[in-house]
């Protein structure tokens, strides 16, 4: 059974004290974040390298090729899409390691 307290009201003094404490907490958090804010951000590294460098995985000669295939059978749809842009051999050579990530 849900029992509510009989007197859950607060008086004016307690309300003002809670309001002042909440305001002081918000002001402290805002002033701390303003004090810790760095508008310049991280500078360049000392050896001149970029912060993160990703390898280029683009395939020469296949620039801008895309195929859109619709169908109910997933395997047949993937095969038709790959055949439309030159087959799987255009991307993967014999002996390459491949990871298939399914977005399902």
General description of the model:
The chain is an all-alpha fold. It is built from two helices and no strands. It has helices spanning 12-36, 74-84. The model has no long low-confidence stretch (mean pLDDT 83).
Write a brief structural summary.
The protein contains 2 helices and no strands. Helix content is 35%, strand content 0%. The model has no long low-confidence stretch (mean pLDDT 83).
Q: Could you list the spans in which at least 5 consecutive residues all have pLDDT below 50? A: none
Mean pLDDT: 83
The sequence of SSEs as H and E is HH
For the largest beta-sheet, the strand count, sense and barrel status come to:
none
Q: What would you call the quaternary organization?
A: single chain
Anisotropy-based shape = elongated
Count of DSSP-assigned helices:
2
Compute the number of strand runs.
0
Helix content: 25-40%
Measured by DSSP, the beta-strand proportion falls in: under 5%
- Report how far the terminal alpha carbons are from each other: 45 Å
Derived from helix and strand composition plus strand pairing, the structural class reads mainly alpha
The Cα radius of gyration reads 31 Å
SSE map:
Layout: H1 12-36, H2 74-84
Essential attributes:
single chain, elongated
